[in-house]
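Researcher: Let's run the pair from yesterday's discussion. Sequence first, then tokens, for each.
Model: Starting with the first of the pair.
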Amino acid sequence: MKQLIELEPWNSGNYVLLSNIYSTNLKWDEAAKIRLSMNEKGIQKPPGCNWIEVDGIVHKFLVGDKYHPLSEKIYAKLDELTKKMKVAGYIPTTDMYCLT
């Protein structure tokens, strides 16, 4: 991964992946150094993005997006689904540490 950062110093994905590898292995200081290096170089990770098609219309969502006209209803539905999943016994995987 360090070689990828040297080859593509502009590619935020390489920094994030290396930081996540360090975090997964509980090497918090190393992960912090990678994130600090990103900040010092002005490299930012683009926000997560998803698309969904409903009735032939494609809707795009960014992480934390509140600009969609139905965002309040969408987040309410996500909260409802999350609660139902927990009641059904869903337990999220927490053995991977990702610092995004």
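Model: Moving on to the second of the pair.
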Amino acid sequence: MEGGLRPMDAEQLRENGHKMVDFIADYYRSIENFPVVSQVEPGYLPELLPDSAPNQPETLQQVFDDLQAKILPGVTHWQSPNFFAYYPSNSSTAGFLGEMLSAGLNIVGFSWITSPAATELEMIVVDWLAKMLHLPDGFISAGKGNGGGVIQGTASEAVLVVLLAARDRVLRNVGKTALEKLVVYGSDQTHSALQKACQIGGIHPENCRLLKADSTTGYALSPDLLSKAISHDIANVVLESLLVLKVGTTSSTAVDPLLELGKVTKSNGIWFHVDAAYAGSACVCPEYRHYIDGVEEADSFNMNAHKWFLTNFDCSVLWVKDRNALIQALSTNPEYLKNKASDANMVVDYKDWQVPLGRRFRSLKLWMVLRLYGVENLQRYIRNHIKLAKQFEELVAQDPRFEIVAPRKFALVCFCLLPPHSNEDNSSKLNHDLLDTVNSTGKVYISHTVLSGKYTLRFVVGAPLTEERHVIQAWKVIQEKASSLLSEFGMNGVS
């Protein structure tokens, strides 16, 4: 196109690519200067940007100027070393380079023939990760069984596809009209993704059994409680299809007893899925591997490499023991996708292991992380965050105005500020106000949950740039705001 648009020009890419890398590198160099939580009000951006696209091209510098002035103020900085609110969404140089390479190649690897390297590299790197976690051989693509791994977008997608596989496995045996009798189990600490998967999969809301877990079990699901629920459902001619267990619940990093619960599911023919989205990363360290003891009983296992494993979002690894269960639930084979390798059943077509057809070359990111950092450095990275969380927990424990609410297992500390004169009626408001005042400083970002009716603050160490000084400074901000609030409570006659 002489004098016209050249959307992919190698030299233009080189020039502008260098500028973009410089912009991102400068962002990381100055990331501590930004308020962690965006301070804008809802609807701020339409007032700053035009209401229609430009007719003529603008310069990259104009775009950078708008990014600085209009976009970054509306960003909450997940990679900030002062981000302690949610389980992390790690970024790293290796992950970024892998993402850049994936975007550059821009393949759509839904079947082997559409890019053989995309399929085969994915099989290799998820096997590498499975071996790092010491998963049973039945989960390994190159193993003797019929298992294997696949990279999904998120743990929510992983839960959905195994629910569909479990559902269809039951319905093939008893008939499709039994759908209304299918039941799915989890604890009330299970991620809300399970409920959404049930909605999508046609499981009646009342048949999503979220069994109570409380402080007496460390917020883990009791095998006795599960057995009683299953017995009750069997007596009422209800069919069980899936149990989702957590290794590191969202609220408190509780760990369900996999081995005992796995035996219950096996004796009742229930699909057993282990969701270790966050804490699975820690299990590459030998001293934390025991938290997934019992995974040999599972039908599927999931961890998010994009949470705590330095692999840029999105990269959620799902392993299954029976790949055919996924394929039978999710496969379509229209004429325009048929090819010799697939028809001869010589290859894996990952389109049949997921909900969408198209898929990105995500394995490049994980491959880069594993190669450029190595297992030992990744283990040290995890251990350092857990060490920093332990330091924070000790700081909280030393201040008698605060209480540790749940046992710390990994890098999450659950705590609360105690109300004056032990007046529990004021506890929720006090801690809600503390959360708001701490976050409004822009210096720190924390979050909350509710455990056994108690409004609880969550402090998660997990950002790649976080150091000891950030943890100590965050605690000072929390203490300072707590002192002000307690003073106000006293002055207002609240006790």
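Researcher: Give me one sentence on the second I can quote.
Model: Residues 248 and 254 are 5 Å apart (CA to CA).
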